[in-house]
Amino acid sequence: MHEAALHVGLIGLGTVGSQVADRLLNRREVLRRRAGVDLVLDRVLVRDPTRPRAVAVPREMLTTDPADLLEDPCLDVIVEVAGGEEPARSYLERAIRAGKHVVTANKVVMARHGPELLELAGAMNVDVYFEAAVGGGIPLISTFKVDLLANDIQRIMAVINGTTNYVLGRMADAGLSLEEAVAEAQTAGYAEADPTEDVGGYDAVSKLAIMASIGFGARIHPDQIYREGIEGVEPVDFRYARELGYEVKLLAYAARAGERVEARVHPVLVPHGHPLAVVEGAHNAVYVEGDLVGEVLLQGLGAGGRPTASSVVGDLLDLARSVHRQVQHRAAAQFDAQVQVVPMDEVGTRAYFRCRVADRPGVLAAICQVFGEEGVSIASAIQKESDDVSAEFVVTTHRSPDAALRRTRARIARLDVVHSVRAFLRVL
Ligand SMILES: NC(=O)c1ccc[n+]([C@@H]2O[C@H](COP(=O)([O-])OP(=O)(O)OC[C@H]3O[C@@H](n4cnc5c(N)ncnc54)[C@H](OP(=O)(O)O)[C@@H]3O)[C@@H](O)[C@H]2O)c1
Is this model's pTM higher than 0.70 or not? Predict the structure, then answer.
C-alpha cells in the first residue's frame, strides 16, 4: 500500500470500463478529496488496444497481457469490468492470491463463485466489492451488507432485468409480439444480439442468487433456483391480466421458509397497486421485507455504462477509505452452506391458466372437475367466444402447491374438450 494513494488496474474498457476510466482520469482531484486517498489508474487490460474508445486513455496504459496487472506489485486493486465467467474468474482469483483487493461488476462470476472468492479474500486479508453486479447503479449490496444488517430478511422480490421489463411493457402497451418487442429492444440498445440470457431469465437468476446469498446469509447457487423465461407470454395475456387487475412482470423471488429458502424466477401477474406493478421500461426495482425495517423499495436504472460506473467507482471510494483508515470492510460475507432451497413442487403459488376450449356444453364441468380432483380452488374465471367452434377460457386459482397446479395444467391439456393450454403463469 502506497502512502495515501490506491493504484488501480482496470480489466475491460467497454460500456462500463470506459465510464469508470473517465471518472478516475477526469475527476481525480474530486475523488481524492472525497476518499482522502488518490485513486490512480495505472494499467488497463483490453483485447484490442487499437479499438477506438469512448474515453481518451493514454496508449501506454493499455495492455493485452493480464500479467501486466495481476503480477504488478505496485497495483493495490483490480477492477474487473470485462464480463463472462472465464477468464474473469481466474483473473479475480489470481489478483486476490497476489494480495490485491478486487472490485467487479460480474454477476456470472459472483453468482457462481462469489462465496469461494469471498472466503479466499478473507484468508488473504483483502476485500471483494461487487455492488455493480446486481441492479447497475442501485445501491443493493451495500444496503444488504450495512443498512439492513440488523434485520432477518424475510422476502426479496425484484424486477431485476431491464430488458425483459422493457419487452413486456411494449407487449402490454403496444400489443407487440415477443419477437417484435425484442427486435425493438435490440434497436434501442436494451437487448443483446442473442437475447437468451435476458428473455430466458438466466440473468435474473444470477442476480437473485447474489441477492439471496447476501440477504439470507446462505450459499444459494444459480442452479438451485427455479427458472422460467418470458417465452410463453403472448400479447393477449396482458389484456386478460389487466381485466383481472394485474400487470405481467418477470419476477425474481426469494423468501425465508422456516429453515429453508424459496428462490425462483418466472413471469408473474402482479396486482395493480403493488409497487412492482408500476416499474416501467428498463428500470429495476427491488422490494425487501425485513423483520425490523418492514418494507423497503429500491429503484433505479439497472444497467448502462454510467449508472454501473457509479457503483464501481463508489466501491473503489469505499475501499479507498477503509484502506486509508486501516479497517477491514468485509461485513456479512458469511454463507451457511447447509441452507436448503425449497423444491418448486412444494412451493405454494397461485396460477393463471389460459385455454382454448371447444364451445359446447359440458366443457366447464370437465375442466372444473380436474381442478377439484387436484384440490386446486378457482379464484376467478372468464370465458370469451372467439369463433364459432372454440372459446378462450381464463382461470386464476387460489394458492396451491406448484406441483398440483402443474399436474392440473397437464391433465386439462389432455381433455378432449380442450384444444390447448396457451398460457400458464403464476400470480403474486
Ligand atoms: N453494460 C451494462 O449496462 C452493465 C450493467 C451491469 C453490469 N455489467 C457488467 O459489467 C461487465 C462489463 O460489461 P460491458 O457492458 O462494459 O461489456 P463490454 O462493453 O462488452 O466491454 C467488455 C470489455 O472487456 C474487455 N475484455 C473482454 N474480455 C476480455 C479478456 N478476456 N481480456 C481482456 N479484456 C477483455 C473488452 O476489450 P476490447 O474492447 O478490447 O474487446 C472490452 O473493453 C460485465 O460483467 C457486465 O455483466 C454491465
Answer: yes
